[in-house]
Design brief:
- The chain has a single domain, classed as Aldolase class I (TIM Barrel, Alpha-Beta Barrel), CATH 3.20.20.70.
- About 35% of the residues lie in helices and about 20% in strands.
- It has nine helices and eight strands.
- It has an eight-stranded parallel beta sheet.
- Helix 2 packs parallel to helix 3.
- It is globular.
- It starts with a strand and ends with a helix.
- The structure holds D-xylitol-5-phosphate and zinc ion.
- The site of zinc ion (ZN) has 6 residues, from strand 2.
């Protein structure tokens, strides 16, 4: 069976008890922690920044999957890398003319690199960079908020990317993922699922995570 990487989004966690919330998903079998960084410009919301990533790094050995929903990602990559991110995913739409430079910058800190595309962005725009990437993140909602409804059309981008991907490319989906929509995505070729409200809104995190696999 294909190995699916589950990356719970702490955007839906209880921020007053973040340490416990992260330990709980690890005990429940998640491998990654998805950290949503929002700047109030690229998306109409503000969330987590560098100091929180640093604090999380100090308390867990889990793989930190940092999703930058910010303008000018190149300005902040060094800070997030030094704070302890393991993977840095930036948005194609935030730096369409400097994609190669941004990829190189993330790699220069020895980190894994991902590109994300919003619902209205065609997957073909990232084809030229695919061999340089560790991950492609397909947004299945408009980025900015947890708890939105899954956009089915976006999932149809998955096979288009899988068709031209190198064998180690991780295809991740984010937004509206639950036990049903997650299965749609994995059957189309995704191998990493981000889920915020579905996991953190559940009474039993392990049951929720198991139901995604
Ligand atoms: C949305 C974020 C997501 C969000 C997902 O902009 O990128 O990671 O936390 O939340 P759910 O799983 O509730 O749709
Ligand atoms: Zn995200």
């Amino acid at each position: 069976m294909q190995k699916i990487i589950i990356s719970p989004s702490i955007l839906s966690a209880d921020f007053m008890n973040l340490e416990t919330e992260i330990k709980s998903i690890q005990e429940a079998g998640a491998q990654w922690v998805h950290i949503d960084v929002m700047d109030g410009h690229f998306v109409p919301n503000i969330s987590i920044g560098v100091p929180v990533v640093k604090s999380i790094r100090g308390k867990t050995d889990m793989f930190l999957d940092v999703h930058l929903m910010i303008e000018n990602p190149q300005k902040y990559i060094k800070s997030f890398a030094q704070a302890g991110a393991d993977l840095i995913t930036f948005h194609y739409e935030a730096c369409a003319t400097d994609v190669v430079e941004v990829i190189k910058l993330v790699k220069s800190f020895g980190k894994k690199v991902g590109i994300s595309i919003k619902p209205n962005t065609e997957p073909e725009v990232i084809f030229p960079y695919i061999n340089e990437l560790d991950l492609v993140l397909i947004m299945t909602v408009e980025p900015g908020f947890g708890g939105q409804e899954f956009m089915h059309d976006c999932a149809l981008k998955i096979p288009k990317i899988r068709e031209i991907a190198h064998e180690n490319l991780i295809i991740q989906v984010d937004g509206g993922i639950n036990n049903l929509t997650g299965k749609i995505c994995t059957s189309l070729g995704a191998n990493s699922l981000v889920a915020g409200s579905y996991i953190y809104g559940a009474n039993d995190y392990k049951k929720a995570i198991d139901s995604l696999r």
